[in-house]
Amino acid sequence: MQRALESALAELTLGPEIAPEDQNAISAWLARNEVTPDDARALQRDFSRLLVYRQLVRRNLRDALESTIPRCIARLGARFDTDFADFLRVSPPVTRLLKDLTPRFLEFALPRWAQDPNVPEYLADLAQHEALQIEVATLLARPKDHVPAELSLDECVEFIDAVRLVHYAWAVHRLPEDTASRVLPERQAMSLLVYRSPEHEVRYLELGAFAAQVLSGLLDARLTLGSAVTGAAHRLGLPLEAELLSATARLLSDLAERGALLGKGPESGQNNPKTSNYVPNASKPA
Amino acid sequence: MTHEPQYEATPRGSRQALGGIGLGLRWDFLEEVLDAPHLDVAFFEVSPENYLSRGGYYPAALEQIAERYPIVTHGLTLSIGAIAEPDPGYLSALKQELTRLDPPWHSDHLCFSTAGERVLHELLPLKFCEENVRRVAERARRMEGLMERPFALENITYYVHPGEPELSELTFLNRVLEVSNARLLLDVNNVFVNAQNHGFDPYAFIAGLPLERVVEIHVAGHQRLESGLLLDTHGEKIVDPVLDLLEWTLERAGDVPVLLERDNNVPDLAELLSELQVLAQLRARALARHAERHAKSA
After folding, report:
1. A36 in B contact zone (CB under 8 Å)
2. Residue in A with minimal Cα distance to B81
3. Under CATH, which number does the domain B15-297 receive?
């Protein structure tokens, strides 16, 4: 009995709309969900009021998405209504934590947007960028069993958990925060290091090519520091000279000072990243 | 018939482990709570789902607040009445959070919010029937053991009863409490909203409950739609008839902690604190009359 009612209410709230005057559709909905005749009669009688639950469920879920990817949704306009409706119907939420709703929605929507020429190409980057803010803001910080006291070329480098290296085709992180803005981002390949500061703020570092390659080696491939640096230099055709090693030292020292990298702290005179090949970008509260 | 309260002896799980008027902790005013030297709030209530399996600012802020104020937890997505068993991952994360916060009890809603794997994120009403009494009661008993603390169920609002009821709402609620031995988190606004929407006497409803089982009372505002339907929005001020019902309930239930819930259109903290003062005055009047009733009957 409860199983049938659950199934019927899930379909009513997440599925296609049924008009209250469409008695055939209502009967079909009740039959499809194997609702008992007594319950079916009652639900048919109260159908209009039952639709309140459709509004409540959809509003809660929509609010959760709008709070995490507001600019993306605003720029999608009416198109989002279709994506949202299809998402609920095809790939409904399975998480009890609303913070996990947006990744599920994007998993569903991003491939659709990529296929649709009417969706601006940059929106995928913008959606991922907005979602990343929540992801990094809420990542669990696991206790570290072993944090190297000093960095060594022969060892991997330990970072905090709340750190992500991302690559965009558009400079979406420079767009205004205002949801009403329709300023277009610059088409520019971008690598960002996104991390949560000890003060719980999500911060972004715009990386130059060499820094991005080194960090990709360290974070994604989990290479030793020496392998990450030589690999990056090799891929970019740069000679492994003192300036490059010095820039690497400044990069790592700065990340340690920012609390993104665990290990040896910065030494005097190595804090200023101005001469390194990355530029600190604006920060945003978590 | 009016049930008079019988106070429990042990502090944990006793309404007397908390007292006074509490406030639902919302992110809208979290920083103000942290910054204020001390607020006239007897306790804060949090929804663990907003803090489970996450790091960062909010859990850290909650930890600081928990050092200064008593905390009680109120879940949103247990889905105790659904056919599917509660998600073990959710239960494990919840247990971890409750161990961290150590509230005197944990509560959730007498409802379902899942259908198979689908999570609807809304409190949907259960059919008032014996089959659901048995399933909910068995799980409520299990929750108490799993969470290692008393477990309370909250009466929800329902805009439609799902199907043909076998029992009245009051009988259903009483049967669940009787079979499960769970505590009751009595939401007087929900009783009022249901009474208006379904046409019954809210005072008679509350008089028919085992008030000695009430560990906490919730109160909130609601919205009246053009159709006349009342919606439990937690987005408005509490209306006078609900305040009257609360006062009447406290006079009979005695010293039960009361919580103001505000989830939408959240005003400044100062406005919420002034609402708490109104509730504190109401509570003082009700408890004085409660003492008089007891003195007369002694």
Report:
1. yes
2. A2
3. 3.20.20.150
> Residues with Cβ < 8 Å from A141, sequence gap 6 or more?
A160, A161, A162, B55
- Please tell me the distance in Å from B57's CA to the nearest CA on chain A: 5
d(CA B234, CA B238): 9
* Global ipTM: 0.91
Instruction: Give me the domains of chain A, ranges plus CATH numbers.
Output: 2-115 (no CATH), 141-285 (3.90.930.50)
Are the beta carbons of A52 and B231 separated by less than 8 Å? yes
pLDDT per residue rounded down to tens, chain B (298 residues): 334 333 333 345 555 578 899 999 999 999 999 999 999 999 999 999 999 988 999 999 999 999 999 999 999 999 999 999 999 999 999 999 999 999 999 999 999 999 999 999 999 999 999 999 999 999 999 999 999 999 999 999 999 999 999 999 999 999 999 999 999 999 999 999 999 999 999 999 999 999 999 999 999 999 999 999 999 999 999 999 999 999 999 999 999 999 999 999 999 999 999 999 999 999 999 999 999 988 887 7
- Whose CA is closest to B67, among B95, B38, B96? B38
A9, A94, A286 member nearest B56 (Cβ) = A286
